[in-house]
Amino acid sequence: MTVKRRLPPWLKVKAPGGPNYIELRSMMREGGLNTVCEEARCPNIGECWERGTATFMILGDICTRACAYCAVATGKPTGLDLGEPVRVAEAAERMGLRYAVVTSVDRDDLPDGGAFIFAQTISQIRKRLPSCKIEVLIPDFNGDEQALATVMAAKPSTLNHNIETVRRVFRRVRPKGDFDQSLELLARARSIDPSSVTKSGMMVGLGETWDEILDTMRDLRSVDCDLLTIGQYLRPTPKHVALSKWYSPDEFDELAREGEAMGFKHVASGPLVRSSYHADEQHEAATAGAVAV
Fold it and tell me: Which residues, given as ranges, of the chain have pLDDT below 50?
């Protein structure tokens, strides 16, 4: 079933344009940096950029995959920017970040999927900002265990990998991904470093059932995933997979309560929640051993 595109009132946000937003956008352009906030058309860009937080997107802005829900450009990337980790770290230093989030496009053209650049970015940020916590939202690296080990060796504060959707819907919207491989990645990260904080995220409104959402949450807990984000899928263009349902704020609240009962250390669940939304608060909840909604 396809629902009307018209946004319900709880999904309407103020257009970005404050002074911090303008300054941060200028900083990103000057440094030749990309943000997933822009590329994925995140609805929270105004709020987050006004708070002085942004999610850096490394390894270029061309993705080798074509997930049916994603607004990031797809194509054939060219080359590898070895200077990018330093520029990201310099921007993080200028922003005075206490918590940095780094993600990437998929780079299936690279032997390690870009793991080395992830590790270098963590290292360069730590070099300039020793007290800064660093979350990495990584691709699946096609199941390459050594690529994951490379990232984990750099000791990210939080290792995030999004499951995105439920098992039945997964192959339709992520044809080059694998549901079980994503779960295995999270389990392997925990095995490599038992003290690590692991995190995942999913969208709703792609045709899943309520029970399938709960089953996916249980699957994530079965690999001891600490943190979870749940947000509303927003169709970027008519070419992307159709939206099946608008979930209400009350339904998101109920999912948060279900996640709390399952043992997640923090569940951020809401219509506008995205993977890195208030990521610093989630990490604090995980490391403090608290459970919050």
Answer: 39, 290-293
CB count within 10 Å of CB 274 equals: 25
Write the pLDDT tens digit of every residue in 82-139.
Answer: 999 999 999 888 888 888 899 999 999 999 999 999 999 999 999 999 999 999 999 9
Dihedral sign for Cα 267, 269, 275, 276, please: negative
List of residues 6+ apart from 207 with CB closer than 8 A: 1, 169, 172, 244
Domain boundaries of the chain, sorted by first residue? 14-288
Write down the H helix ranges in 31-144. Answer: 36-39, 45-50, 84-95, 115-128
- At 50 the pLDDT is 55
H-helix or E-strand containing 100?
A: strand 99-104
Distance, CA of 275 to CA of 116 (rounded, Å) = 22
**In terms of CATH, what superfamily is 14-288?**
Aldolase class I (3.20.20.70)
DSSP label of 102: E
User: Of 177, 186, 125, 178, which Cα lies nearest the Cα of 152?
Assistant: 186
pLDDT at 254: 98
